[in-house]
Amino acid sequence: MGDGFTFNEKHLSQIPALQLLVNLGYSYLTPAQAISLRGGRLSNVLLEDVLRDSLKRINRIQHKGGVYLFSEENIQSAIQRLKNVKYDGLLKTNEAVYDLLTLGVALEQSVEGDLRSFTLNYIDWRNPENNVYHVSAEFAVERARSHETARPDILLFVNGIPFAVIECKSPKTEVAQAVSQTIRNQRDEYIPALFTYVQLVLGTNKNECKYATVGTPAKYWSVWREEHEERDEEGAALREILDRPLPQEAKAGLYELLAEGFNMREPDGEYVVRRALTQQDRTLYALCRPERLLRMALLFTVFDGGRRKIARYQQFFAVERIVERVKQRDEAARRAGGIVWHTQGSGKSLTMVMLAKALVLEADIRTPRIVLGTDRVDLDKQLGNTFAACGLTPDRAETGRHLVELVAEHKAHIVTTLINKFDKALTTRKFQDDSTEIFVLVDETQRTQLGLFAARMRQMFPNACYIGFTGTPLLKREKSDVTRFGGIIHTYAINQAVTDGAIVPLLYEGRLVEIEQNKAAIDVWFERHTQGLTQAQKADLKKKYARAEMLNKADQVIYMRAFDISAHYRQNWQGTGFKAQLVAPSKAAALKYKTFLDELGEEGTKVSSEVIISAPDEREGFDEV
């Protein structure tokens, strides 16, 4: 929280947060206890004694049927490795620490005369109950190159490692101030050493709560929403947790924090609270209960091109629902699949990355192979680049023959490909893999999975699990295909994305421009421009020109439409900050529209416009588009 805090801030936000966190399983450390566990050094952010005891408790060496402890030397070496990660900027250092936390560290040790390398883990990710959790308040950290300190309001520890920072504000203060303060504390001149270990950051003022991860700009901090399957409308589970009496030691520590500076004495009797549930309570319960906190860090965090990102709630629940779905099997032992419908702009590519991580780390799935398919070259490259940027290394099938080689010879665990390569692959070599541990993830499902190449995919992988991703509205005739395919697994609709601020709203208004065609004028124009052609050539040209889509390109038609667009935009939207988009039938027509828009209107009120021409459509079978 900075250099000082108000009673209002503590009482109404910080203390209730600490009370809930203690009842969620975190042991409360007073500021004095936390400093003691840090060896009395404000520059040290690890609780080393807690970390040492945890590493001894959760790690065992399995060797030739025997179980052995890591040596004291190796335990200390692991602590030093985590403590002395070279600082190379906040995000690079944070990523290096993340790799240590998630992958562990390889240490050599002699067991029964056999010198080998064994992995020591800092956290037991699979068994959250085996770790120890602490919470402390007013955690003073010495600033870089200074003896001054900065004090985050609440800090959560897992096995003595700082894991989450929570900044609390008064309900009278905008939560944006908590966000900006947390971002400020990550700067090089403040306390970046703390944030090299942190996985989750939150800002709260009791009534509003936002979360993010290290390095997240303010505009990307998000609100968490529990979905209907998870949401506890009456708050019964949360109510039961809140109403538990605090342990006496935690009660005394929190009262000491609350009464600091007020010369108050701790009251006798039972500590009983019955208060209304707040958004702060719901968010802390959703994100900070130990098992969810670990899952968010392990499965729902990615480093994307040097930026750290954490899942939004729709990505989290989509992946969770998919993992639940694929555990179901039919009578032939095939895993159940289905379709994820997430509106465009909701982060489907990162959802697929997080799903791949979850499938690889799921205990129920042994040696999964993942095939990422799309129908466009640009999407194929984008998915491959996204996976690579997030630390996963997919192999891109360059040809149909290459696709068969990658899959048949198990050369890759993750393969990206254009869907049409399945057809080419099977014409090159008849191949079939009957494994049920192949997961085919297809982007823009309607154009591919439900269409022409679905049969070819299933011919090559008859027992695979197929998961489709789309954000395109389903047509009536496609809904039965979706049902046959496995049904909808998860949805995230446009209105939800707009409410969350993930996308901007789109406003629709139908416009009909009355076009009066002057037949005589058109005939004169036609005769003038077809001089020198034979009657047969004229007849053929007139037949083509008579088509509405060609006639609408005539300059007078474009001018009338441009006039209507210009007048409507100037009257209704100019100066509001909203933009408009006009789709033209051709490049030439687009240039004509811009010419006329530039001419129309008074000086100073003309509608400014730019022409944007997209690349050719590279879908299979769409060569003419």
List the helices and strands and how they pair.
Elements: H1 7-23, E1 27-29, H2 31-37, H3 48-58, E2 61-63, E3 66-68, H4 72-83, H5 90-103, E4 105-111, E5 114-120, E6 133-137, E7 141-142, E8 149-150, E9 154-158, E10 161-168, H6 175-185, H7 192-195, E11 200-204, E12 209-212, H8 236-242, H9 248-259, H10 279-288, H11 290-299, E13 301-304, E14 307-310, H12 313-326, E15 338-342, H13 348-361, E16 369-374, H14 377-389, E17 395-396, H15 400-408, E18 414-418, H16 420-428, E19 438-443, H17 454-460, E20 465-470, H18 476-485, E21 488-492, H19 494-500, H20 519-529, H21 535-545, H22 548-551, H23 555-572, H24 587-599
Parallel strand pairs: 1-6, 10-11, 15-20, 15-21, 16-18, 16-19, 17-18, 19-20
Antiparallel strand pairs: 2-3, 4-5, 6-9, 7-8, 9-10, 11-12, 13-14
Provide a brief overview of the structure.
This protein is 41% helix and 16% strand.
Overview of this protein structure:
The chain has 24 helices and 21 strands. Helix 1 (7-23) crosses helix 10 (279-288), helix 12 (313-326) crosses helix 13 and helix 23 packs across helix 24 (587-599). The longest helix has 18 residues, at 555-572. The model is unreliable at 1-8, 547-553 and 618-625 (pLDDT under 50).
Using brief descriptors, characterize the structure shown.
625 residues; seven-stranded parallel β-sheet
